[in-house]
Design brief:
41% helix; alpha/beta; 13 strands; 4-stranded mixed sheet
C-alpha cells in the first residue's frame, strides 16, 4: 500500500468516476485502474462497486476512505512542516439546518483551534443539502433534527446514502418570536393562539416535502405561512410582521440579540437534535470537538 494509492482512492471518491479522477490526477485511466485493482487485491476487498451509472463506495470502502483521508492529511501536515516548509492548513467543514446554537458551537471550535493552521467551512442550509453535503464529503458532519413524523423517511434516506444519525438531546417545542409580539408574555401558547400570526418556515427549495421541513408540525393547516431562505429574514419578519417559527427553544442571544424569546407550545410533540456522519468513517479530532460543543447545549434545553 502506498501513499499515492490512498490519494487515488480519495480522488476517485471525490470525482465519483475513474475517468474524471485520472484526468484530475494527470495519469492515464488504465494506470489508475491498475493501481486501484492492486490495492484492492492487497487489502482483500473492493473499495468501489462499478455499475453502468458510475461507481459507489462499498461498506468497507467507506471505512477505508475515512482512514485514508486521515493518513493523507497527516502526511501533508508533516510534509508542510518538515520537508517543503510550506504553510498547509487543515480543513473542517460542517453543514446544518438553521440552528443558531450549531453556529455558536462551530465558532467555539474555531476559538479553540485558531485560524493560523486551519480552514473552516460552514453551510447553514436546507435539509436535503445537509444530507447531500455529508454524503458527498463536502462536510464531515451535518446537524439536523428528527421526530416521530419524519424519522422513518429520513432514516431510510440516510441508510441509502451510507450515513448514520446520532442523537444528542431531545427538546420540547417552542414558538420563537419577537418580544414585541402580543404572545411574548405568555408562559405557554397553543396552535390556536398562533393562528393570528404568520408562521415563518425555511424554504426547502425543490425538496419542499413535509419530511424535509426544519419545523415540526409541518402538516398543520396554517392560516398564514411565509417561507423564507435565511435566518436573518426570519428575524426581521418576527419584528416587522409579528411572525413566529417553531424551534427547540435554545436561545443564543450573543448571535441573535436580546429582542427575541421562546414561548413553550402546548403539544406532546418532541424533536431530537443530532448529527449525521458517514458510516464507518472515523470522525476527526476537530469533528469530535464540535460534537462535544454541540452536546453542551443539552444543559440549555428549556423544560
Amino acid at each position: 500500500m502506498t501513499l499515492n494509492q490512498l490519494k487515488y482512492v480519495i480522488e476517485i471518491s471525490k470525482q465519483n468516476s475513474i475517468n474524471d479522477a485520472a484526468k484530475s490526477l494527470f495519469i492515464s485511466q488504465p494506470s489508475l485502474t491498475a493501481a486501484l485493482k492492486s490495492l484492492e487485491q492487497e487489502i482483500g476487498f473492493e473499495i468501489f462497486t462499478r455499475t453502468n451509472s458510475g461507481i459507489t463506495l462499498t461498506v468497507k470502502g467507506e471505512e477505508f476512505l475515512g482512514y485514508a483521508k486521515s493518513v493523507v492529511e497527516q502526511y501533508d501536515i508533516l510534509d508542510a512542516k518538515y520537508i517543503s516548509k510550506s504553510n498547509i492548513k487543515r480543513t473542517f467543514q460542517v453543514s446544518m439546518q438553521h440552528y443558531t446554537f450549531a453556529v455558536n458551537a462551530f465558532m467555539s471550535v474555531i476559538d479553540q483551534y485558531g485560524m493560523d493552521e486551519y480552514e473552516f467551512e460552514v453551510h447553514e442550509t436546507r435539509t436535503y443539502d445537509v444530507i447531500e453535503n455529508v454524503k458527498n464529503q463536502k462536510s464531515e458532519i451535518g446537524v439536523l433534527y428528527m421526530n416521530d413524523y419524519n424519522s422513518a423517511v429520513l432514516q431510510k434516506i440516510l441508510r441509502d446514502a451510507g450515513l448514520k444519525f446520532i442523537p444528542l438531546f431531545d427538546c420540547s417545542i417552542y414558538a420563537y418570536m419577537s418580544k414585541k409580539n402580543p404572545l411574548a408574555s405568555k408562559k405557554q401558547v397553543t396552535m390556536m393562539d398562533l393562528d393570528d400570526y404568520p408562521c415563518l418556515a425555511f424554504s426547502q427549495g425543490d425538496h419542499n416535502s413535509f419530511y424535509f421541513a426544519e419545523e415540526v408540525l409541518s402538516t398543520y393547516e396554517y392560516k398564514r405561512l411565509i417561507r423564507v431562505s435565511d435566518r436573518a429574514t426570519i428575524l426581521n419578519m418576527m419584528v416587522g410582521l409579528n411572525g413566529y417559527t417553531l424551534c427547540s427553544g435554545i436561545i443564543c442571544e450573543d448571535l441573535n440579540g436580546t429582542d427575541y424569546c421562546a414561548v413553550k407550545l402546548k403539544t406532546k410533540e418532541k424533536m431530537t437534535i443530532g448529527y449525521i456522519a458517514r458510516k464507518h468513517s472515523k470522525i476527526s479530532e476537530m469533528g469530535q470537538k464540535y460534537i462535544e460543543e454541540l452536546s453542551k447545549y443539552k444543559d440549555k434545553v428549556l423544560d
